[in-house]
Design brief:
Layout: H1 5-13, H2 33-54, H3 57-71, H4 75-87, H5 93-101, H6 107-127, H7 133-149, H8 163-168, H9 174-191, H10 196-224, H11 229-250
Length: about 250
């Protein structure tokens, strides 16, 4: 993997100031997205926990989700809204891609965005009242970037006209993807201090998030012909919401 990969990933997926020369390519974006997720998840979790202790679980949840939006420039949320507009109404492939490329957000996008954020906040608020809620949030953010990395696996189709999709196509090997999944599993075990019950439930919620992203990916492939940058962002937000939802039920 490229030595500048983490910087390339941070340059596109966060607001962190990265030297232009060190992030001149997008080839390292998806392979290192889980690492970026670990960093973002750690910051978001810290803010959420502080907000919970100083104010309330609801305030902590709002602050945690808000800081993620700020640190990512709202890029993934924008992708979620655009993807909802493209996949929502019954329209042909070319028209759907055209709608997604427009700068405005339609009614499908607005409704999807609002409901997804409400779901994330409600679930995180409930999780912050449990002993392992902080770890559930951290893992959800990281798993979301793992779901995005999935779009770089060999054989994943790219929608026509997607410049980002073309740049990152085939940049993630199956072994690399499995390695990151193993790292996440190990962190869950370590975070729960070896307690198998919470670790298994958190792993199950992560799997549910990846399955939700897979459903979205298959829908995008059928309607759009493959993934786009917007679809990658939508998969990330969908994974976060699904992971938090299942974790809130399981913990």
């Amino acid at each position: 993997m490229r030595l500048t990969g983490p910087l390339e990933s941070a340059a596109l997926l966060t607001v962190l100031p990265v030297p232009r020369a060190a992030a001149a390519s997008a080839r390292g974006v998806l392979p290192w997205a889980p690492l970026v997720g670990l960093a973002l998840g750690g910051i978001g979790t810290g803010v959420a926990v502080v907000g919970d202790r100083w104010i309330s679980p609801l305030a902590g949840a709002v602050l945690g989700i808000a800081v993620l939006a700020l640190l990512t420039r709202g890029l993934h949320l924008d992708g979620l809204a655009d993807t909802a507009d493209g996949l929502g109404p019954l329209r042909g492939r070319e028209r759907a891609l055209q709608v997604m490329h427009q700068s405005d957000v339609g009614p499908f996008g607005v409704v999807t965005l609002v409901l997804t954020l409400l779901l994330q906040i409600a679930c995180l608020s409930a999780l912050l009242e449990t002993p392992w809620g902080w770890l559930a949030f951290w893992s959800a953010v990281t798993v979301a970037r793992l779901a995005m990395a999935r779009t770089g696996l060999p054989g994943v189709a790219t929608a026509e006209g997607s410049s980002l999709g073309a740049l990152v196509r085939g940049t993630v090997s199956v072994r690399w993807f499995a390695g990151w999944a193993a790292v996440l599993a190990a962190l869950l075990v370590a975070g729960t201090t070896g307690d198998p019950g919470p670790a298994v439930r958190l792993a199950g919620s992560a799997l549910a998030g990846l399955l939700a992203a897979e459903v979205l990916h298959r829908r995008a492939r059928a309607r759009l012909g493959g993934v786009t940058g917007d679809v990658m962002g939508a998969m990330g937000e969908t994974t976060t919401a699904a992971t938090l939802l299942v974790a809130a039920v399981a913990l």
